[in-house]
Design goal:
Strand content: 15-25%
Number of helices: 20
Distance between the termini: 21 Å
CATH superfamily of the largest domain: Aldolase class I
Number of domains: 2
Number of strands: 15
CATH class of the largest domain: Alpha Beta
Helix content: 40-55%
Structural class: alpha/beta
CATH architecture of the largest domain: Alpha-Beta Barrel
Shape: globular
Length: 474
């Protein structure tokens, strides 16, 4: 079949789509990717491909774009919605003009659906398919696909890098070494995936070091590559796997890399192995400086001392520290959000990344809001590039100003009392220009040159316009 894959912009580049694309191409399907923001004639380009099916990214925080894009696309072609919103919001089809939605890991479900469509079969036989019956969504029970990631076709990175050459030229590129995580954080998609699969997939599945090196070599042989980022939820939880990486990666690849992991995995031995392998930046989930909120409300059983130890061990090995932070969680006071700033200053965080919590459909954050007697905003209230303190109790503007001041305040040690004064008494619009400083921090941790970063940013768009994809869900 001829499959047109549709997304909004380059900043949404999805490894899940690339990995599914490799599987589809190996099965004989012809694929083409269309990024609406980067097409002069979006509808003409899609129609000119003469697709048999449209696969459209349906992610959280992108519903307004999704509705507008579907209104433009030819209706006679079957429409399949894929992504985080398609997976976790059964009611999505009731609001969108599409035929079916797919739930679960995309390289499990999409090949099966295309096989059924090409044979003229009944889509209701495909696991994880959502369809409307008398106006109500009906979901076919999920079944897990092949458990082993190893024998699958290489990701179809050319879908992005050849058609949109500025993506191929950008020398920083993402890879995945596996899927899954040992944690069950309430703000993450993984607990929902595990529950829907009924435990049929292992919590963590890992590609071999040899397979990871093969994927990197396949990219390096065709496109510029000077920085590698491993985009797993949890990088290298296995000591034996990390030992092999530290032995082979410097010899066979030798490109500085960044990755995300959990503080609990950063033992002294693992920190040394990460440094020996070539880690330049390691990100850990701090989430909130309030240990009570982190462990009791957000379901993240990570103590402050574990975060301190991980940061100290990484820095002792010359690895720069990146942290992930969430402000305005349900039930979190403004002073507790300030403690997140204070903890980052204590750690000497090199690259803090900070977002405002948002209560996506079916999430713990949404449930906590309802338990507190507050109704979450509807899904179509979330729009690309609009970051608001949806879950805040009290004045949301204070949290939104804190987010703007956060990175600058961590870097320059601005006292939390000063930040508090500005956030409580300032106007949000006055702090909008600090978005340029946030972009500067993003550039610095990527490790690429200023010219390369500027060329990419000018075409790809602002990072805060990225939708909420996942390692196996676009």
């Amino acid at each position: 079949m001829r499959v047109a894959i549709v997304q909004a912009a380059a900043v949404d580049e999805s490894l899940a789509l690339a990995e599914a694309g490799g599987v589809l191409r190996a099965a004989g399907h012809e694929l083409r990717l269309f990024l609406q923001a980067h097409e002069r004639d979006f509808v003409g380009a899609v129609e000119g491909f003469r697709p048999d099916v449209l696969v459209v990214q349906a992610a959280f925080m992108a519903e307004p774009w999704l509705a507008a894009a579907l209104a433009l696309l030819p209706r006679q072609i079957p429409r399949v919605l894929v992504g985080t919103a398609a997976t976790f919001d059964d009611s999505l089809l009731q609001r969108m003009d599409a035929d079916v939605a797919l739930q679960g890991e995309l390289d499990d479900t999409l090949p099966l659906l295309l096989d059924v469509l090409s044979a003229g079969g009944d889509v209701a036989t495909v696991p994880g398919v959502v369809r409307l019956v008398d106006g109500e969504p009906v979901v076919t029970p999920w079944t897990s696909g092949p458990p082993d990631l190893e024998p699958r076709a290489l990701p179809a990175r050319d879908l992005y890098f050849d058609r949109y050459r500025f993506l191929g030229r950008f020398p920083w590129k993402r890879f995945q070494t596996g899927r899954g995580c040992v944690h069950s954080c309430g703000f993450c998609y993984l607990p929902g995936l595990r529950e829907a699969y009924g435990g049929s997939k292992a919590n963590v599945r890992r590609k071999s070091v040899g397979r990871v090196i093969q994927e990197i070599e396949a990219v390096r042989s065709r496109w510029p590559l000077r920085r590698v980022h491993f985009a797993d939820d949890l990088f290298a939880p296995s000591r034996a796997w990390l030992e092999e990486l530290a032995d082979r990666y410097p010899r066979e690849i030798g490109i500085p890399f960044s990755a995300n992991t959990s503080p609990e995995t950063v033992t002294e031995a693992n920190a040394k192995l990460l440094a020996r392998a070539g880690a330049r930046v390691i990100g850990i989930g701090l989430e909130t400086g309030s240990e009570r909120n982190r462990t009791e409300s957000l379901g993240r059983p990570t103590k402050d001392d574990a975060i301190r130890r991980a940061a100290s061990r990484l820095k002792a090995e010359g690895i720069q520290l990146l942290t992930f932070n969430m402000l305005a969680n349900p039930g979190e006071s403004f002073d507790e959000s300030l403690s997140t700033l204070s903890l980052n200053q204590e750690l000497g965080t090199d690259f803090p990344r900070v977002n405002l919590a948002y209560p996506t459909e079916g999430s713990l954050l949404q449930r906590l809001m309802r338990e507190a007697g507050r109704e979450p905003p509807p899904p179509d209230a979330f729009s690309r590039g609009e970051w608001r303190a949806w879950c805040a109790e009290g004045d949301p503007a204070q949290f939104e100003i804190l987010q703007r001041l956060f990175r600058l305040s961590v870097r320059w040690g601005v006292p939390p009392s000063v930040v508090s004064h500005l956030a409580r008494r300032g106007r949000r619009s006055l702090f909008q220009p600090l978005g340029f400083y946030d972009a500067w921090v993003e550039f610095r941790w990527s490790g690429v040159g200023l010219l390369d970063a500027a060329r990419y940013a000018a075409r790809a768009g602002k990072p805060n316009r990225r939708v909420t994809y996942h390692e196996s869900l676009p």
